[in-house]
Amino acid sequence: MSRVYNFSAGPAVLPEDVLKTAGEEILDWHGSGMSVMEMSHRGKEFIGIAAEAEADLRELLKIPDNYKVLFLQGGATGQFAAVPMNLLRGKTSADYVHTGQWAKKAIAEAKKYCAVNVAASSEDESFTYAPPMDTWQLSKDAAYVHYTANETIGGVEYHWVPETGGVPLACDMSSDFLSRPVDVSKFGVIYAGAQKNVAPAGLTIVIVREDLMGDPIPCTPTLFCYKTQAENDSMYNTPPCWTIYVAGLVFKRLKKLGGLAEMEKVNIRKSQALYDLIDASALYRSPVRKSDRSRMNIPFTLARDGLDEQFLKEAKENGLIQLKGHRSVGGMRASLYNAMPEAAVKALCDFMRDFEKRNG
Ligand SMILES: *Cc1c(COP(=O)(O)O)cnc(C)c1O
Questions:
Q1: Of 109, 116, 171, 262, whose CB is crowded by the most CB atoms within 10 A?
Q2: 200 lines ligand 1 (CB under 6 A)
Q3: What is the fold of 16-257?
Q4: Could you give the CA distance from residue 187 to residue 168 in angstroms, rounded to a whole number?
Q5: Rounded average pLDDT over 208-220
Q6: 147 CB under 6 A from ligand 1?
């Protein structure tokens, strides 16, 4: 068996030790004689697995007691609808910050439920930066303010938390969730699809302040009703059991590494190695403003035309795969999620230096 270094933006690389544990336990979880995939979600085994995953996540993020943790389905895309449905609470408008493809989709979905005020946008520079706080034009009557912590396609990440003067802050944290410590108390709701930085696809994690979740708009599907899901420990219907289990293994691994502050240090080291190479190079270029560069998703272009295919082909021959940029941006993109080993980043950097020497 040989494993490649997989730089996919999602579904993405998972920690090898987690995959091994999941493999070892696949036929018989802890002497139960069953796979987690075969268990009733109402049985004591699975209820224990889910409770432990939640407790570990709470510990990692230091989630305050007045926040609920929900393990849902429907992806971040489902939350694009669930956020307005739950957070409007009688109001008719919300503020959104437009920073690229994912913000755009969140805005389009929210418009089905309320008036959207685009409080700030980086469209003027092709979505290559995070609009500074002093440019945000927040409206007085907004039910909440929504932003995208990390634009997975554009590679733009906020390295600060917006200040909204008491208006609940809603954040799509899909692609940098658990990559660094976060002060949860500054948020009304945080949501993240698991398949970028946490687990296989199928799980959406929602962290929501209790006082915001009691008054969903009447047509809210029960599945997306935060309050109902909270009252039922996210088991109003069958939850994504297997994915919750793997997420739990990933939480344990993060705890063992020393928590999110330690994880952040590694993520800074990994991304800095690649950005340093790009900035020192005449062949590679990052389109993103330095202060807002993502540690998770790093797009870059090649200065010489016609080299992209050759770059990807040779990278693949070196066991470095999924480096093609999103079709909307072009060029390359390397996703360096938590599970990406430092050795993979070194292998990528070595390959890129060598490729430039031969083609620069
Ligand atoms: C991947 C992604 C989404 C969409 O997630 P789904 O689980 O496919 O719905 C939304 N926002 C961001 C920032 C993403 O990276």
A1: 171
A2: no
A3: Aspartate Aminotransferase; domain 2 (3.40.640)
A4: 6
A5: 96
A6: no
